[in-house]
Amino acid sequence: MTVAEETEVTLAVGQQKELPLAPDPAGRHPDREMHAILEIGVRGGRGGPGRTGAPVPGTGPALAEVLIVDTSRSMLHPAAKLHAAKDATVAAVRMLPDGTAFAVLSGRFDATLVHPGPGSPVLAVAGPAEREAAERAVRILDADGGTAIGTWLDLARRLLKDQPAPVKHVLLLTDGRNEHDHRAAMALDTALDACEGRFVCDAWGIGDDWDAELLLRITRRLHGRARAVRAESELTRAYEELVAGLLGTAVPELRIRLTPTPGTVIRQVKQVVPNEQELTPVPAGPGGRGAEYVTRAWAEEVRHFQVVLTADPTGRETGEDLQLAAVEIVVPDFGRPVRLPAPQPVLVRWTDNPLDASRQHPGVRRHELYQQAGAAVAHAYRAWLRGTDGRATADRELARALALAGELGDAQLLGALRLIETAPGTGRVRSGLKDVDWQHLILSSALTTPPEPPAPAPPARPRPSGPRTGGGAPPGSAPPGGAADPPGSAGPAFPVRPDGLVECPDCRWLGPADSVYCGGDCGRLLRGSPA
Fold it and tell me: Which pLDDT score, from 0 to 100, does residue 4 have?
């Protein structure tokens, strides 16, 4: 295997390090939450043209796929929806490489195994004969009955339960709302509890009566993405692009391991780009202090995660960088070489300067703006549902969402909002809208993008020799709104013991010789010069 085939994972930690040490003049307890943005990227590992998605010899197929087709009665109104669903499902099956485990389900009040056939305890294995048999079974599907999505997902869970493929994926299509949940053998909430962490689910809407909040509810729990097509004819191409992306998976599973120093508490970890998803911790690390957060099905892409920590400054030094937690990336072995980044610290600098403590990292602010824009869209939609009585509120909330999208510089969101607007610049909801127009907007407002990278700075002029006379930041200080890079291994370091460990002079913590920060009680800098 060549170096070009190696998959590389990158990690960058962005934060504003200062937190307030003392109460404000009114005696109120200060906010001691540290928010950090983890930018994690995956690149390489596809192995060149023609090998996208190919399993490594001896490792087995990389993907197990379940395709769920809504066959409730509403799929016949118009019948173009069912025809499009069949065409798209067949196209997806045709793309599955030989050896891929797969199944096709039909969803109504209950779920039926269309292929490999009712009652089969295992998935089909893709090959020419199986793909043709699946196509025949899909082509004769008819529609009747109601919609109970929890039952559909539960059957997918049971089929995927014993599959060894590293990527387990469900592709769900529906044209309606989960109207018959009360009649289902398993309610949707119960099914989501059972399915979470078992597979990734992408959910698609088709037609004019699907529910964006329902799709988002499913995909946020099952770590997929919610999407929809405006025209039935778009579905086949959308499915083909999605399956191609799955087959190009570079890393089936990636774990974010956080190890806090004593006194630090992990409050929350969530994905914020390309969409928001809460992550549930699993224990990891020595002493039970660490936690891992599982993410799945990485293509060549970059995702952002927000970490929220709390800490107590009692007895800590001010004006000094201290480690609150170590961030490490862990990738289980899946048969290909992966180059992982070095662990990085989340830092704190306790300060009694209110101005320093009030600064916010741009990535944290950006996510807050997306949350506000999504809320404005939701408020505008609810007001629009009230008709004439809600018109003024809908206009006001639309104008607010447009302003937030402009501040974010998100062209995709701006474009989606302008489809709702009477005319550019009016900030008013146009007449003649259908409910489905709002559903598309709600999905668009749930997508997030990272900020545009800054333009390259001009080459720095040589610094004159002699004392600095002001007007610049001292070496190693943080740029405006952000944090300086963690100190490197240059500079004085404490001596390495004969056993290969370094001892912190303050709290006597023992750690690897190349530790930059103490992982014990004090979290102090061990190598390099303080920022």
Answer: 45
